[in-house]
């Protein structure tokens, strides 16, 4: 293994030395959001080595899996580097991965057909595996391609997700890749007609997890496709055990759905790429370390972000307090017959669950509060002390008993 690692690092040095100035700057720019600005801006040969070392440290690449780097070189049209890395990957296929430790028992293919929680005992720990909901619809088209990270990447109970990268068009998500602590990453299946895909407006972003940080909540935005028979995933966002949230990948112009389970953390994903250039289905698999003596809570619930603020009541000219739970403008329009445009780029939407306050409101930059009236958004000039939290609920749409005026 040491010889293999050394050979791979020598290959990276060779590739770095052969990069033109334009290619080197392009590589730093493409990977830039993942690394500190000091490393990103140092487009010297030494700076590129520091960039690669950072990717090693964050387990985004390793001598066993460097798909992330291949993808980066492909994005800057550096096909010589892509070819050499792919040749190295072919050589690696001569090696057989074997795992003997009971602490890293491989998740077998039965994970694909779990109907109830499954329990495995590893080193005196009980691991409960739970399959989440299927978002979107799995197609039976022979040209569609499915993936399952547990089997494809030989994941173990002790592996964890360290990052995620998504691509999307202005219509829907086109690809998703999870990076794991074993150095492997999700297999991305692109449809056969790539030329049509490339003509669509294309966007890409990534989210890197810190050490000892895991995904514990996922927000989906979905809407019906043109045939009104299936849901299309148009946006996705992640929440973590450290209270962080990723940027929104895609659009929030869809029905708001949240997935989370008490004490569970994201383990891996299943999904399918449809031949019409989009992600057709996503399903997350969750893991909970526990003991045999612990009572397993099976009751459904939702962990939702909340936003609270103080404002001055126009009617009573006194300070009031409002609290809302996260939602989407798409839901507001369909449930409350609202018209007009969204509040703006980067806005978060909330439906009020407190006795007082507007029925719905939006927040921009975590401090500017807006309410919707007569088809337009207007800023709450008196809004202050804007705070955020989380709330565990049994419904995505709780009702409040009384609603007062603004």
TrEMBL record:
<protein>
    <recommendedName>
        <fullName>DED domain-containing protein</fullName>
    </recommendedName>
</protein>
<dbReference type="InterPro" id="IPR001229">
    <property type="entry name" value="Jacalin-like_lectin_dom"/>
</dbReference>
<dbReference type="InterPro" id="IPR001875">
    <property type="entry name" value="DED_dom"/>
</dbReference>
<dbReference type="InterPro" id="IPR036404">
    <property type="entry name" value="Jacalin-like_lectin_dom_sf"/>
</dbReference>
<dbReference type="GO" id="GO:0042981">
    <property type="term" value="P:regulation of apoptotic process"/>
</dbReference>
<dbReference type="InterPro" id="IPR011029">
    <property type="entry name" value="DEATH-like_dom_sf"/>
</dbReference>
<dbReference type="Pfam" id="PF01419">
    <property type="entry name" value="Jacalin"/>
</dbReference>
<feature type="domain" description="DED">
    <location>
        <begin position="7"/>
        <end position="87"/>
    </location>
</feature>
């Amino acid at each position: 293994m040491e010889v293999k690692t050394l050979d791979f690092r020598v290959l990276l040095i060779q590739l770095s030395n052969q990069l033109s100035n334009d290619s080197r700057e392009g590589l730093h720019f493409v990977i830039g959001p993942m690394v500190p600005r000091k490393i990103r801006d140092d487009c010297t040969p030494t700076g590129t080595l520091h960039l690669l070392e950072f990717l090693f440290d964050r387990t985004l690449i390793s001598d066993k899996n460097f798909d992330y780097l291949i993808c980066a070189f492909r994005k800057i049209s550096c096909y010589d580097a892509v070819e050499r890395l792919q040749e190295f990957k072919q050589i690696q296929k001569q090696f057989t991965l074997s795992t003997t430790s009971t602490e890293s028992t491989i998740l077998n293919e039965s994970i694909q057909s779990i109907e109830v929680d499954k329990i495995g005992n590893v080193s005196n720990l009980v691991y409960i595996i739970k399959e989440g909901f299927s978002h979107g619809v799995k197609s039976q088209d022979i040209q569609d391609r499915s993936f399952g990270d547990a089997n494809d990447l030989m994941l173990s109970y002790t592996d964890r997700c360290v990052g995620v990268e998504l691509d999307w068009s202005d219509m829907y998500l086109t690809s998703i890749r999870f990076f794991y602590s074993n150095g492997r990453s999700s297999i991305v299946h692109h449809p056969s007609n790539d030329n049509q895909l490339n003509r669509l407006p294309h966007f890409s972003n990534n989210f890197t997890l810190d050490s000892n940080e895991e995904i514990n909540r996922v927000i989906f935005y979905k809407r019906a496709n043109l045939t009104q028979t299936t849901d299309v995933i148009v946006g996705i966002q992640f929440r973590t055990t450290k209270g962080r949230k990723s940027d929104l990948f895609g659009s929030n112009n869809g029905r708001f759905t949240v997935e989370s389970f008490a004490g569970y953390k994201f383990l891996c994903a299943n999904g399918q790429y449809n031949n019409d250039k989009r992600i057709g289905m996503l399903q997350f698999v969750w893991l909970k370390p526990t003991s045999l003596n612990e009572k397993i809570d099976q009751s459904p619930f939702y962990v939702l972000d909340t936003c609270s603020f103080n404002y001055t009541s126009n009617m009573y000219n006194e300070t009031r307090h409002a609290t809302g739970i996260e939602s989407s403008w798409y839901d507001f329009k369909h449930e409350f017959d609202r018209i007009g445009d969204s509040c703006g780029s980067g806005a978060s939407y909330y439906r009020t669950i407190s006795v007082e306050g507007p029925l719905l409101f939006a927040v921009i930059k975590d401090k500017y509060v807006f309410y919707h009236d007569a088809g337009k958004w207007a800023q709450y000039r008196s809004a202050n002390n804007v705070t955020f939290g989380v709330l565990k609920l049994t419904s995505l749409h709780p009702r409040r008993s009384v609603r007062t005026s603004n």
